[in-house]
Amino acid sequence: MAAVSLRLGDLVWGKLGRYPPWPGKIVNPPKDLKKPRGKKCFFVKFFGTEDHAWIKVEQLKPYHPHKEEMIKINKGKRFQQAVDAVEEFLRKTKGKDQASSHNSTEEKNRRNSSEERGKQSAGEEKRKTSLSEGKVKKGTGEGKKRVSSVSSERGSKSPLKRAQDQSPRKRGRPPKDEKDLTIPESSTVKRVMTGTVAGFKWPPSVSEPVKDSDPHFHHFLLSQTEKPAVCYQAITKKLKVCEEETGSTSIQAADSTAVNGSITPTDKKIGFLGLGLMGSGIVSNLLKMGHTVTVWNRTAEKCDLFIQEGARLGRTPAEVVSTCDITFACVSDPKAAKDLVLGPSGVLQGIRPGKCYVDMSTVDADTVTELAQVIVSRGGRFLEAPVSGNQQLSNDGMLVILAAGDRGLYEDCSSCFQAMGKTSFFLGEVGNAAKMMLIVNMVQGSFMATIAEGLTLAQVTGQSQQTLLDILNQGQLASIFLDQKCQNILQGNFKPDFYLKYIQKDLRLAIALGDSVNHPTPMAAAANEVYKRAKALDQSDNDMSAVYRAYIH
C-alpha cells in the first residue's frame, strides 16, 4: 500500500488486528500514554465504540477516498452505526466551521476598523508632536527622534489595545465551541493507567451527560495484532494497571446499561447447558436479572428448580441451541465438552448461521480450538468464556469471566456476564482464555496444597494451626480464599465449593500446557502428585481443601 500523508485530526480507516477496518480520528493521546517503540504510528479514537489504539501508519487509510470501498465490504449493524457517527461528526464540524468563518469575518472587519481608528489617532498625535518639536533648537535632533518615537508609540498602541480589549476574544484563540471536536466518550470510560503510577482521564462528552454504568462490573478487552502484548489494557470505573511494548492493543468496554443499580437484560434468547456447581448459580442469576433462559442438564431432575424460577426446559442440547440466540455451556472436562457438542443430539446439530455458542468449561486450548472450528464451519459464532471462582461466588454473581474468540459475541453477552460475574476479560483469539484459566487454576491449586502442607507441618511441630491462620490473615497473604480454606480444614468441613477432582484436572492440563512449550512447571507437578494421592483416598468429590487429608494419612 502506498504511503499516505496523515496528520492530527484526520479521519481514517484503521485496521485493528483481525477485525475489519473501522472509521476513526487521529487524536492526541493522553499525555501519560507512551507511544509504542518501533514503526511510526498514530493514536486513533474509533467512532461508534470506546476503542482507542496506537495504529501503525501502514494500517491506516484516509477516510473519504476509501469510504465507498469500506461500506461495500462491511455490512454489520455496528459498522453502519460507526459510519453514521462519522457523518454526524462531519455535519457538526461543518456547521461549526461555517459559524467560525462568519465570526472570523466579523472579527476581521472589527479589527480593520480598530486599526484604522488607531492609525488616525496616531497620525493626529504625530502632527501635534511635530509642532512641539519645531520649537526645539536644531542641536537637539537626537532628543527629537527619541521623543517622536515614544509619542508615536503611545498614540498608536493605546487605541489598538482598547479595540482589542473590546473585541469578543483575543486574536488567534478559538471560540469555546471550537475547542476540540473529539468523538463523544462513553460513560464507561473513566481512567486508563500506563506504567505503575501515571494515569489519565478522558473528558466527558459535552453533548452527552455522563451516565453511571453498573458500578460492580468491569470489562477488559485485549485485541492483538502480530505479537501479543505483554499484558492487557483495561478501561473500568476503577483504576487498573497496563503496560504494552509491542503490537496494537485496543481498549474498549462492552456496552452495558445499569438501571437503578440493576442490569438491563438482553432481548436475545439465552440457552444454558450444564447445571453443576457453577452452572446452577449462573442460571439463577441470569433469571434474577430478567433474562429469558432455556436450560438442559444431563440429569434432568436438576432442571426442575429453574423451571419453577421461570426457565424453559430443553429436551436436548440441539433443541436448546436451535431455539435460542446464544447458548452457554459449562461442563466438567474436555471429554464432556466434546461430547456435548459432537455427540448425539448435540450442540452441533442445532447450529446454523448466526447461532452463538459460548463454552464456559475449563478445558485445554486444543479442545476449545477444535470446538470453535466445528461451530464456525456450520456458520455459527463461538466464544470461550471459562470462569474463575467457586460455588459461592457463582451464587453471588461474583465470578471472573475470561473470554476469547468472537469479540462481537462477547459484547452481545454483556448483560449476561454482568449478571453472573463482577469482571470479564477479553483475551483475543480462541485458546487464550483456556490457557489463562489453566494458569490461574494452577496457581490456585498449588497455593491450596501449600496451605495444607503448612497447616500439617504446624501440627506435627506442636504449633497451633489456628494461630498460624491468625498470623497469615494479618500478613500479605491475607485473602478470603486463604481464610475459607483454612477454616474448612480446621473444622473438618470439606463440602465441595470447588471439586478436588477438577482442580487436579486443571493442574494436569496446566502441566501439559507447560510441556507443549518446553516450560518447566515443577511446583505444579509436585502439587499435582499430592492431589492424586488425595483422590486415591476418595477425596475426589470433596472440596479442594480436602487435599489436607493427603498429608495426614
UniProtKB/TrEMBL annotation:
<feature type="region of interest" description="Disordered">
    <location>
        <begin position="92"/>
        <end position="188"/>
    </location>
</feature>
<dbReference type="InterPro" id="IPR008927">
    <property type="entry name" value="6-PGluconate_DH-like_C_sf"/>
</dbReference>
<feature type="compositionally biased region" description="Basic and acidic residues">
    <location>
        <begin position="162"/>
        <end position="182"/>
    </location>
</feature>
<feature type="compositionally biased region" description="Basic and acidic residues">
    <location>
        <begin position="92"/>
        <end position="145"/>
    </location>
</feature>
<keyword id="KW-0539">Nucleus</keyword>
<dbReference type="Pfam" id="PF03446">
    <property type="entry name" value="NAD_binding_2"/>
</dbReference>
<comment type="similarity">
    <text>Belongs to the HIBADH-related family. NP60 subfamily.</text>
</comment>
<dbReference type="GO" id="GO:0031491">
    <property type="term" value="F:nucleosome binding"/>
</dbReference>
<dbReference type="InterPro" id="IPR006115">
    <property type="entry name" value="6PGDH_NADP-bd"/>
</dbReference>
<dbReference type="InterPro" id="IPR036291">
    <property type="entry name" value="NAD(P)-bd_dom_sf"/>
</dbReference>
<dbReference type="Pfam" id="PF14833">
    <property type="entry name" value="NAD_binding_11"/>
</dbReference>
<protein>
    <recommendedName>
        <fullName>Cytokine-like nuclear factor N-PAC</fullName>
    </recommendedName>
</protein>
<dbReference type="GO" id="GO:0051287">
    <property type="term" value="F:NAD binding"/>
</dbReference>
<dbReference type="InterPro" id="IPR013328">
    <property type="entry name" value="6PGD_dom2"/>
</dbReference>
<dbReference type="GO" id="GO:0050661">
    <property type="term" value="F:NADP binding"/>
</dbReference>
<dbReference type="InterPro" id="IPR000313">
    <property type="entry name" value="PWWP_dom"/>
</dbReference>
<dbReference type="GO" id="GO:0005634">
    <property type="term" value="C:nucleus"/>
</dbReference>
<feature type="domain" description="PWWP">
    <location>
        <begin position="8"/>
        <end position="66"/>
    </location>
</feature>
<dbReference type="GO" id="GO:0003677">
    <property type="term" value="F:DNA binding"/>
</dbReference>
<dbReference type="GO" id="GO:0140673">
    <property type="term" value="P:transcription elongation-coupled chromatin remodeling"/>
</dbReference>
<keyword id="KW-0158">Chromosome</keyword>
<dbReference type="GO" id="GO:0000785">
    <property type="term" value="C:chromatin"/>
</dbReference>
<dbReference type="InterPro" id="IPR035501">
    <property type="entry name" value="GLYR1_PWWP"/>
</dbReference>
<dbReference type="InterPro" id="IPR029154">
    <property type="entry name" value="HIBADH-like_NADP-bd"/>
</dbReference>
<dbReference type="Pfam" id="PF00855">
    <property type="entry name" value="PWWP"/>
</dbReference>
<dbReference type="InterPro" id="IPR051265">
    <property type="entry name" value="HIBADH-related_NP60_sf"/>
</dbReference>
